[in-house]
Amino acid sequence: MIVTVTLNPALDLTYAVDALVPHGTHRVATVAERPGGKGLNVARVLHTLGEPVLATGLLGGATGTRVAALLYDEGVPAGFVRIGGETRRTVAVVDGRDATGFWEPGPTVTPAEWALFLDEFHELLGPATVVTLSGSLPPGVPLDAYATLVALAKQAGVPAVLDTSGPALRHGLLAAPALAKPNADELAALAPASRPAPAPPGGPATGSIVAAVRGLAAGPVVVSRGAGGLLAVTPDEVWECAPPVPLDGNPTGAGDACVAALSRGLRDRTPWPELLADAVALSAAAVAAPVAGAFDPDVYRQTRTTARAVIPETAPGGPRARTHR
Amino acid sequence: MIVTVTLNPALDLTYAVDALVPHGTHRVATVAERPGGKGLNVARVLHTLGEPVLATGLLGGATGTRVAALLYDEGVPAGFVRIGGETRRTVAVVDGRDATGFWEPGPTVTPAEWALFLDEFHELLGPATVVTLSGSLPPGVPLDAYATLVALAKQAGVPAVLDTSGPALRHGLLAAPALAKPNADELAALAPASRPAPAPPGGPATGSIVAAVRGLAAGPVVVSRGAGGLLAVTPDEVWECAPPVPLDGNPTGAGDACVAALSRGLRDRTPWPELLADAVALSAAAVAAPVAGAFDPDVYRQTRTTARAVIPETAPGGPRARTHR
């Protein structure tokens, strides 16, 4: 099974209001509650694909109980470590124009709770085929938490996919995960040179991303570039794959669908071109779905047959013919 | 004991942000969670005063569990009927300037759950000295719910204090509660003639409020007028009492502190002048406290010794000397 780790999950609330009026009082017309957090979206996508999956991480308080209940309702297998603090909420207030977001910081995790999670994670590595490590770290968890988890997974021979940002990403990369999936902005935050000013249409140049990745990571990295698609950079290869048609929809959760596809492909040792095409298709299908953690199966099937991975002309060293993995 | 009924309680969340940016994403710096709903504030104030109190009403789901846990932490005795729906949340986003509020509508209550509550309420009337009925009705509860509860209380010889608005207030008044406490706006919504245009400073004229009350209610009504203080209107008396010094602070919960004072005074058969002065003082002390359900004991003590109830010159029929009850 694929084990998805979410250390800072959330209860995602979406409030529909007529119009957001700063410093006014709003009667919320409808409330949507969903289990939130990037790793939970990965688990939900994999579960919908019929892949054996287990969602783990940290949950606490009444909000944590609610998240667990919502996952249970969706049939997603889950085994979380309980903590004393309250799992955070996110509130998205949606009016006719756009969403206004409020993100709680998350509970403070004690050293004893973190040690308990490490024990649990160690146990889960037995049956795991791949682990995914997604999202932010709650207060109290060490900054090198993902490096620790990557190292434990390596000892157990289980490949780890890392999708986070900031210091958690920088520390995690030092442990050389089997795969990392930052988006272009998250990469640029760690290696500002990867974003030249002014950026060309479609984001930073492929060459500068490749250079940034190779300066930061010893292993393969897939960089997501929104509508620009995915760029896979390994120590000696570069592949890119973009959606064949422009996408319109809800980009939240597209990166998590991408991680779902990549983790499954890593387990199956899928070659880079097919792997990237599948990840692009599942990401596009997630954009086409109204909520994070879901995807549009028609868009998935369609895009999967049309997306093609290529070796970019502009990659350092130019196109090469190898398609290993 | 005083039984406080809250049919639509809430988990009140206060989010501190730097500045509210419509359609932006906000990292919430701090989150405050409190048990919310007008009747819970009444219970918390009475409990802090050392009065025997029991908070009852409807609670459901993980949010309801959280509200019960927060009440337990504060030591407030509570016995709520569990429902299947999720208790609502309110979110107040506070930036440097003011608060922006989002109010969830509340769970839908089934007829079976409402019947269960009526049984529970009937049981609680045995030991009750006074009942307070505060706040909005959740979806599914009949519009004449408060009329039903007032009638049950009457049969048991227990005085009921009603503090609600709109149709719930209109229906409730028909059952002639021992006391009703609308604010001037809530009264004006039922009897628009009580708010002349333009309103004089301090709100509608005393005479028009008295006329409105006597047109709507057969029993005594205390109308709260913010800084203008309280106006008590009985079928044959009028009393008013205003805070001796202008108040600056948080008016949320001041009405609930007022109800707490009135319900205690009703139990003790306190004469109108002392009753109004006590209610004005406790309301002022609530304004001086940063959060609803709390009060500043120094302001309470001070205001209690200085507030004086008078028979207003402008009352229909002019000043009269009686101080009965």
Task: Provide a short characterization of the protein structure.
Chain A is of the alpha/beta class. Chain A has 10 helices and 14 strands. Chain A has 2 domains: 158 residues, UDP-N-acetylmuramoyl-L-alanine:D-glutamate ligase, CATH 3.40.1190; 145 residues, UDP-N-acetylmuramoyl-L-alanine:D-glutamate ligase (3-Layer(aba) Sandwich).
Walk me through what this model shows.
2 copies of one chain form a homodimer. Chain A is globular. Chain A has 2 domains: 158 residues, UDP-N-acetylmuramoyl-L-alanine:D-glutamate ligase; 145 residues, UDP-N-acetylmuramoyl-L-alanine:D-glutamate ligase, CATH 3.40.1190. The longest helix of chain A is centred in the last third of the chain and has 16 residues. Chain A is built from 10 helices and 14 strands. The interface between A and B is large, with 36 and 36 residues. Strand 8 of chain A pairs parallel with strand 3 of chain B.
Task: Please supply descriptive tags for the structure shown above.
UDP-N-acetylmuramoyl-L-alanine:D-glutamate ligase; 6-stranded parallel sheet; about 325 residues; 2 domains; alpha/beta
Widest sheet of chain A: strand order?
A: 6-5-1-9-10-11
Which ranges of chain A are low-confidence, i.e. pLDDT below 50, for 5 or more consecutive residues? 319-325
Which CATH architecture of the largest domain in chain A is right?
Answer: 3-Layer(aba) Sandwich
CATH topology of the largest domain in chain A: UDP-N-acetylmuramoyl-L-alanine:D-glutamate ligase
Q: Please provide the ordered H/E string of secondary-structure elements of chain A.
A: EEEEHEHEEEHEHEHEHHEEEHHH
CATH superfamily membership of the largest domain in chain A: Ribokinase
Distance between the termini of chain A: 21 Å
What is Rg of chain A? 19 Å
| Global mean pLDDT of chain A | 91
The biggest chain-chain interface is: A-B, 36 and 36 residues
Can you tell me the overall shape of chain A? globular
Helix content of chain A: 25-40%
Domain Carbohydrate kinase PfkB (chains A, B): 9-292
InterPro entries (chains A, B): Carboh/pur_kinase_PfkB_CS, PfkB_dom, Ribokinase-like, Tagatose/fructose_Pkinase
Family (chains A, B): Belongs to the carbohydrate kinase PfkB family.
Protein name (chains A, B): Sugar kinase
